[in-house]
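Weekly sync, protein design subgroup
Attendees: M.S., D.O., the rotation student, P.L. (late)

Item 1: inverse folding check
M.S. brought a backbone from last month's batch and wanted to see whether the design step gives back something sensible before we order anything. D.O. pointed out we never logged the input encoding, so this time it goes straight into the notes. Structure tokens as presented (299 positions):
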């Protein structure tokens, strides 16, 4: 891995993303509430994207699992059971997180109502996610290059570990801040009076109440996983710098759309979105750099 790169793209991209996030935090620190008043407006297409948009990010988990699977089986046949175990866990992570965050919408789609309809419908809604991710490992098995097993293993491990770390960091920070969501504020007689800036933290006020879990944005933690897409492009059989940059551009567009959606759907403020993106991006950058440097030393 070149010292001039972070997550398989030039370092300058890291500084640009970081600078934009910090700028968004600064702007949001003064205009969070006013921006939501101007942009918040729930729509059907916005709701659809909010429910299923995270699917593309979660595809990275089974893709990362296949990286490790190919790398382990290439290194040593005795690692085959371990390779399968990691593959199953990574696949389960995608299904679990999708069902955990958006399962209620899918269960509603299949007509399941707890206590009123057959429990089989709940299973069907869960199986929906299983089927939805089925293509990922098969495609990745065909397109990933096994010439450097260590790089494959470290790439997959970095994506999985950084994803878990970012998700748990986000959950902890939500409790630290306990910031009211905009969708909750607009149910109050005086929404502006209930508004709090991101730094006006009241630790552990949120508890299990989702209305007080606005900062930082958890969905942006999910969306920002897409910044690891160039890392997967960098282990393709037919890889190139151009493909890495294209994948980075796809990630940027996806993250921007997702960020707008979180504000548009009354779930978050601008600073929530930018903090969620920045925290995840930094975690992925640090973890991936550490893992890929280790792979480089082994090579």
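Designed sequence read out in the meeting:
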């Amino acid at each position: 891995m070149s010292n001039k790169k972070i997550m398989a793209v030039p370092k300058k991209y890291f500084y640009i993303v970081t600078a934009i996030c910090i700028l968004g935090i600064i702007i949001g620190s003064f205009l969070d509430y006013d921006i939501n008043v101007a942009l918040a407006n729930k729509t059907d297409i916005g709701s659809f994207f909010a429910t299923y948009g995270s699917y593309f990010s979660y595809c990275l988990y089974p893709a990362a699992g296949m990286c490790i699977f190919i790398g382990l089986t290439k290194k040593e046949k005795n690692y085959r059971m371990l390779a399968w175990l990691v593959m199953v866990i990574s696949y389960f992570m995608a299904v679990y997180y999708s069902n955990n965050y958006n399962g209620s919408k899918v269960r509603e789609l299949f007509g399941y109502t707890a206590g009123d309809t057959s429990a089989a419908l709940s299973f069907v809604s869960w199986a929906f996610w299983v089927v939805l991710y089925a293509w990922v490992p098969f495609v990745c098995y065909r397109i990933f290059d096994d010439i450097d097993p260590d790089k494959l293993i470290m790439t997959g491990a970095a994506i999985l570990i950084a994803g878990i770390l970012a998700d748990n960091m986000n959950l902890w920070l939500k409790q630290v801040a306990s910031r009211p969501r905009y969708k909750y504020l607009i149910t109050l007689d005086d929404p502006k009076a209930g508004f709090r800036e991101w730094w006006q933290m009241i630790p552990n006020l949120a508890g299990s109440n989702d209305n007080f879990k606005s900062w930082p944005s958890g969905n942006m933690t999910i969306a920002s996983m897409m910044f690891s897409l160039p890392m997967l492009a960098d282990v393709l059989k037919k890889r190139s710098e151009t493909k890495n940059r294209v994948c980075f551009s796809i990630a940027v567009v996806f993250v921007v759309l997702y960020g707008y959606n979180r504000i548009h759907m009354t779930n978050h403020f601008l600073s929530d979105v930018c903090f969620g993106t920045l925290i995840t991006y930094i975690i992925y950058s640090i973890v991936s750099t550490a893992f890929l440097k280790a792979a480089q030393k082994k090579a």
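Discussion: The chain has 14 helices and two strands. The chain has a mean pLDDT of 94.
Action: P.L. to compare against the previous round before Friday.
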